[in-house]
Structure formats: C-alpha cells, structure tokens
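tool=predict chain=A
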Amino acid sequence: MSGIMDDQEIERLDLPERAWRERLSDQQYHVLREAGTERPFTGRYLNNKEAGEYRCAGCGELLFDSSAKYDSGSGWPSFTEPASHAVSEHGDTSHGMRRVEVRCARCDGHLGHVFPDGPGPTGLRYCVNSASLDFKPRK
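tool=predict ok
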C-alpha cells in the first residue's frame, strides 16, 4: 500500500483524553480513540448515497468525498481513495491478522482499515466506521 502522507503536513490536533471524552459520544470515543469497530451493517453512513464530504467526527478534517464511496458489501462504508493527505496508514497485527489501519492524519483517530481488493482506479477499499465520520451534504 502506498502511504498517503508525503512532504505536506496537516496541522495536528492533540487533545488530552478528558477533552476527547467530552467531545465524542461513547461509540465515537471507542472507535476513534480506542481503535474499536462497529458491528457490520449497523453504521449510519453505510447506505448514504447523498453527494458531500465525509469529515472526521473527532476533528472535522476532510477525509473522503462521496464520489469515492461505493457499496463493497462488507458492511461498512467503503471508499476507493481518501481526500489528499487526509489519512495515515499503519501496520496492524491485532486479532491475529496482518492489516493496514487508517487513521485521521490530523487527530490520529482510528477510522478503519484499507485492503487491496477494491475497484478501479485505485484497487483499494478503505473500510471505515460510520462512528468515525461526520457527513456534510454538498450544497
């Protein structure tokens, strides 16, 4: 997998854990700060087909555009690519698997994972928890 981050840096948002707890719902905190996951087919943005932007629920950073969203059948919102420089990628060997975790490049919140089984043009599937997202419809 190619890393999205390069020489362009996003201004980081680092908050104390108490501030994250106050800012996020219990489910958002579990996903974004504790690398939790939603049950498949339960996320509020899974079937969203509106045009707009998917932003980080923790910090508001633009993560994905609706034009990159598709139905992967996986049970989580899926995207072919992130907005430029929006996510960072990290090796993840939890749960006895080798995966690539994706995090918000601004606040380091856990979003989900990226897999090499998506459609063209990237061939990638960014599998993202709805709880990590905030959708802004296009006007």
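Helices lie at 17-23, 26-34. Confidence is low (pLDDT under 50) at residues 1-7.
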